[in-house]
Amino acid sequence: MRCIIIDDEVNAIKALRWEIENYLPELTIVSTFNSAIDALEYLKSHPAPDLVFLDIEMPEMNGFDFINNVPDREFEIVFTTAYSEFALEAIKKEAVDYLLKPIDSEDLRKAVEKLKKRLAPIQKQEYITENLKAIKGYNSNESDKVKISFDGKINFMNPEEIVYLMSDGNYSKLYLQDGKEILLTFKLKEMQQELPEKYFFRVHKSYIINVQKISSFYKNENFIVLNEKINIPLARSRKAEFIRKYL
């Protein structure tokens, strides 16, 4: 799993790097930052890591502000801090764990185990999908099928059956053309990985739409209408990409 470390204390980064490199071979440190602002710039032009070790008290931008500046976060967070009073806020940010400095080796190992459990459904789905591809030998038409797990099985759906998906905490809701609504036991970012980009676009941290269902786009008001009646917000951070791809 790929990770980055954000901490304004050089010695704290060195200590955490040593722990990871010596005791957690499943983690690969791809970069470290003394500034949350520099880390934000990095994420704009590099693939998102699986995990970010994030200090809270930092000059210019603290850890919570860093998260607020990544509205469509695609990575997990482990907070690393010398202050215990931030624990409740860390829980609200859906962090994997909250580690107090100096970081204990056993606490760090437990945090990574929690991360593995959180990512396990995604990895299992990817494994099943890849094996089904090998067995069935998909042709170009079949590859357009959307593979979604619900009702205890993997369902192969045509893209036109799906109108949009909406985040519901640790779950997602699937809205179909026939009016049905299905609760999925996957986060929206997990579902995004399963959907073909030529049909689906994440317009907001809480919504993925089927672009074939777009009836109109209100550019100044930043919202999209699906099937002539469903209004979906378009995040400002996604607007330029949406226009470049589909308009």
Automatic annotation (TrEMBL):
- PROSITE patterns linked: HTH_LYTTR, RESPONSE_REGULATORY
Q: Where does the source fall among the domains of life?
A: Bacteria
Q: Name one Pfam family in it.
A: Response_reg
What are the record keywords, sorted?
Answer: DNA-binding, Phosphoprotein
Location of the Response regulatory domain:
2-116
Q: Name one GO molecular function term.
A: DNA binding
> Residue positions of the PTM 4-aspartylphosphate?
55
Question: What is this protein's record name?
Answer: LytTR family DNA-binding domain-containing protein
The UniProt record lists the HTH LytTR-type domain at 151-247
